[in-house]
Amino acid sequence: MEGFQRYTFSDAIRSVLKQAVREAATLQHDYLGTGHILLALLREEGGPAARVLTALKIDRDSARARALETLRPGSQTEPMGERPYSPRARRVLESAMASADEFMESGVDTDHLLIGLVSVEECLAARTLAQAGATAAAVRQEARRLRG
Predict the structure, then answer these.
(1) Rounded Cα distance, 46 and 34, in Å
(2) Contacts made by residues 24-29, CB under 8 angstroms, sequence distance 24+
(3) Does residue 4 belong to any structural domain of this protein?
(4) 1 in a domain, yes or no?
(5) Is the pTM of this model over 0.70?
(6) Could you give the number of structural domains in the chain?
(7) What distance in Å separates the CA atoms of residue 66 and residue 127, rounded to the nearest whole number?
(8) CATH number for 128
(9) Which of 14, 78, 105, 143 is disulfide-compatible with 111, CB 3.0–4.6 A?
(10) Distances (CA, A) of 49 to 6, 10, 83, 113, 118
(11) Which residue, among 142, 145, 144, 94, has the nearest Cα to 119 in the 3D structure?
C-alpha cells in the first residue's frame, strides 16, 4: 500500500486486502484488481461493509457468483511475491481514503473500502454491486447512517 502511509488502515481492511491477494492467487492473476477486492469484501463477516450490505439487503453469495462469472482464471501458475494493484484498484483505495476524510474518520475501514468500490463506476466491482442494488448513493447513505 505504498503511497498511502498517512492513513491508518483498520485490522478489518488489512484482513480484506490480504484475502484479496488470496483471491487473485486462486484465480491465477498476477495483479490485484477491484474484482479481487470485491470477492474478499463479500467474505467479510460482521464488519462495517458487511453491515452496510446487510442493511441494503444485498445477497453477497449472488454478488460473489456474478463477479466470478466475469473474472476468468488467468495463467499465473508460479507463486509470486507481491501483486501490484491495478490502476482502478489504486483509485478504489484513494476513494476509500477520501471517504474516511469526508466522514472525518481517523482511519480507513471496510465501509470506506466499499464506498471506494462503488465510486469507481467503470470497474467490475461497481457494476456487480450496482446490479445487486448497492449503488454509490445507497452505499454512501447507509454507511453514513450506520456510523451515526
Answers:
(1) 21
(2) 24/83, 25/76, 25/79, 25/83, 27/71, 27/72, 27/73, 27/74, 28/73, 28/74, 28/75, 28/76, 28/77, 29/71, 29/74, 29/76, 29/83
(3) no
(4) no
(5) yes
(6) 1
(7) 10
(8) 1.10.1780.10
(9) 143
(10) 22, 12, 24, 8, 12
(11) 94
Cβ atoms of residues 61 and 115 within 8 Å: no
Other CB atoms closer than 10 Å to residue 62's CB: what's the count? 13
- Other CB atoms within a 10 A radius of the CB of residue 139 amount to 28
d(C-alpha 37, C-alpha 25), whole Å: 12
Nearest to 109 by CA among 48, 24, 33: 48
Q: Which domain holds residue 109?
A: 9-147
Kindly report the average pLDDT of the chain as a whole number.
90
Type of residue at 44:
E
In a domain, 3, yes or no: no
pLDDT digits (tens, 9 = 90+) for 37-74: 999 999 999 899 999 999 999 999 999 999 999 998 88
Kindly give, in sequence order, each residue whose CB lies less than 8 Å from that of residue 38, ignoring residues fewer than 6 positions away.
Answer: 63, 67, 117, 124, 125, 128, 129
The Cα–Cα gap between 90 and 41 comes to 16
CA-to-CA distance for 53 and 144, rounded, in angstroms? Answer: 13
